[in-house]
Amino acid sequence: MSTxxxxxxxxxxxxxxxxxxxCMSGYLWYxxxxxxxxxxxxxxxxxxxxxxxxxQLKTANAEEQQQISSLFRHQTALxxxxxxxxxxxxxxxxxxxxxxxxxxxxxxxxxxxxDDEVGLSLAALKAADRELHRAGDPHLLPVRxxxxxxxxxxxxLHKMDVSGLALRLQSMAAAVxxxxxxxxxxxHPVATVVNAKTPPRHGWHKFLFELRSDFSxxxxxxxxxxxxxxxxxxxxxxxLQQNLKLMLYSAQLALLEHHGIVFGNDLAQARxxxxxxxxxxxxxxxxxxxxxxxxxxxxxKLQVPDISGSLDLLRQIxxxxxxx
Length: 324
Description:
The chain is an all-alpha fold. The protein has ten helices and no strands. Helix 1 packs across helix 10, helix 2 runs antiparallel to helix 3 and helix 6 runs antiparallel to helix 7.
């Protein structure tokens, strides 16, 4: 009786566990069947829509890639056009700068050679050099070097006090009349020597006395260590002074016209006349001769330089055929 009870209890529990397992299996089957239906009804359409969207995006991406490639080709073409335009603009700017420099060099030569305007010619040379610098062409460096030399030459001429020297020459010409002539250049009558003896009144003694007196006035003996220039009459001395004035005025005109050679020759001639015909011991003569010597030393700097070399060289370079 006691052993049959545990067996029946164990059998009942086994039946209960079997029923529970069966119910759990049925529930799991139900859940799985239902979940497949839910997944099939909700997830599959979404996946389908996502795949369709991905296909659309791929198509749009391909179209955009084609558009980007087309835009890149257009951009490359535009860049080439812009580079070509920039090159043409730079070329035109260089040509314009070179043409402007040539025009300025021609103006500089015209102002210096025809109008004798050193300041304007110097300004035109400097402006031409700036234009060639803006052009940036290395083939034009020899022209700029020639322009630099011409600017230095003109600056030396421009710094001279031409107006001051001209006024000083005018003052010298006005003072020529006050310069004393040399002691050996003018005729001075010899004073008659009065004989202390009483001349005879008649007879051959009177005749001999008068004859000796006349001969003593006709012949005058002087001692000198150098050749004497001919004596000048008062009228000739006047013309000498006027000629010296004209020589100084001629030097003044050559100074104003920047003719250095003529200016130096006139001053040299004026100095020679001062030394030869005027009193070298006079203070006025000494000061004037020194002033003329100082001006004569500046004569080489007064000569107008030739500035046509830069213009000729530029035209020669422009006439050469361009390198391929």
